[in-house]
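Risk register update: the risk that structure generation would not scale has been downgraded. Supporting records follow, first protein first.
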Amino acid sequence: MKHSNIAIFIPHMGCPHLCSFCNQRNISGEKSIPSGDDVRKICSSAMSEISDKSNTEIAFFGGSFTALDRGYMLELLSAAYDFVGERKFKGIRISTRPDYIDDEVLSILKKYGVTSIELGAQSMSDKVLEANERGHSAKDVKKASLLIKQYGFELGLQMMVGLYQSTESDDYFTMCEIIALKPDAVRIYPVVVLKNTRLGELYQSGRYQLYDFDKAVEICANMLYMFEFMGIKVIRLGLHASKDVSENAVAGFYHDSFREMCESYIFRTRIMTLLKNKKGEFSIEIPKGSLSKAVGQKKVNIEYFRKNDLYISFKENSELHGYCVSIKEVK
């Protein structure tokens, strides 16, 4: 059953830090601050529109939820909790900072029907966290993650790829450290440099250089494959397509089909590995629904194969799953 969220944005609220990459209003696309009544209106409307509510969560995104003024946080939770329970929504999802998690706040979240907590880890390198003015350490991420799991919440971790002073090795180190924490889900955000941010200033001054776009796709594709191989869902890869982000991005890895580009890279790499040193015509079976990913945007994979003297035709097979392929030589 497909999971869905009723997204409610609390733009850049609660967070005591302005991180190097952050221009939260542009990311969320929201300008106003929701009240408890706003939450009730949104949830009430969703109640009438969504037939199967059993795998739907009311999701507060955009700010550091547990760092909000306590009275305001309780106002939002109380409003949302009215719509949680039998024949209502599954629960409440929140996102927050790892240094604003403790026993007291987790007890409150449990009381008000919160089911999932996402932490903005971004990096597990203290050097990178400090350079990007995160205001917390990798140790804070580990401590908060373990506490969240002890209380029985679903744990989500968010990471960024290509941050200021982060190397490829740092990014893969972050991936490995997140895998070790065994979250239920992750979000991978390749860096998008926005106007009016510290990263924007560093980029325009030449002090911050990004990966090539193809390198970012390669790294994120490898992470996507590894997380899924380890049984960790990747619930987001790349920033959500939005007019505000596209208008305010000055550099970085923003593409409305970024995940599919990564999935195409995975298929291409697997096929090339299996056909190492071979040439000719091949028929390849792929999982059902994967044709556009295997072919690649604008048939980029097909062209890549042809340059390597490989002539590929694809056929979908409902018995295959993930990135499995079955290859037959055409004689």
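Supporting record for the second protein:
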Amino acid sequence: MSSAVHPESVPTVLVTGAGKRLGRAIALGLAAAGWRLAVHYRESVADAEQTAAECAALCPGAQCFAADLSDETQTRALLHTVVERMGHVDAVVNSAALFEHDSAESFSYDMLQKHMVTNTAAAIMLAQQLHSHVGEREASGVVVNLLDQKLWNLNPDFFSYTLSKASLETANTLLAKALAPQLRVVGVAPGLTLTSHMLSNEKFQDLHKLSPLGRSSTVEDVVATVLFVLNNQSITGTTLLVDGGQHLTPFERDFSLM
């Protein structure tokens, strides 16, 4: 008798923006927990292929999928393509995000539209597509939307980005109501987790400590929370803040500009 595991019995998750940074870490963490990965990327094909290879070593069957989430046609087709190639999808983790600076003074229709389409509309579209797919299978699914602690600790930097994430947080509630019981929709809001080109390592370490617990979220914290959401069948329509309490400490500026 064969001991091979049938692909239908292996939970499959699409992680957007999984080629780099936090999306990559989430993909690897879920693969280590037994999830088969659909690794989404826009342009970073080499990074996505590396992520998929490492995920496949942990849980066989990982594949890469390209899509520009600012394009409705490509976004609408993404989940369908994953299903065609992998058989089924049980969850979507929306990690990909546009993060470009603007302010109330530099605000423009174009900047807001770019952020809203990529950060908000794409996540809603993927939830819509997953709901249709699991409904056809008479199954259930879950969408995890990566948000930001700054929604509970507002400052005016990255004005359009913040508006897009605030809209997505509201969409969590709307989608959780509209797409139940087939689909759960949950937000995960990290604090300062990874450094960037805008912060020196020393500055990042100093800012990371600015929280009631003396540290903000780590990559491992965020991955553990996403996995918890995927596994816990009683959570929907809410957001888990994973930031060491950073949202309780008032900040007048975004971390990258402090």
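The longest strand covers residues 183-190. On this basis the risk owner (M.S.) recommends closing the item.
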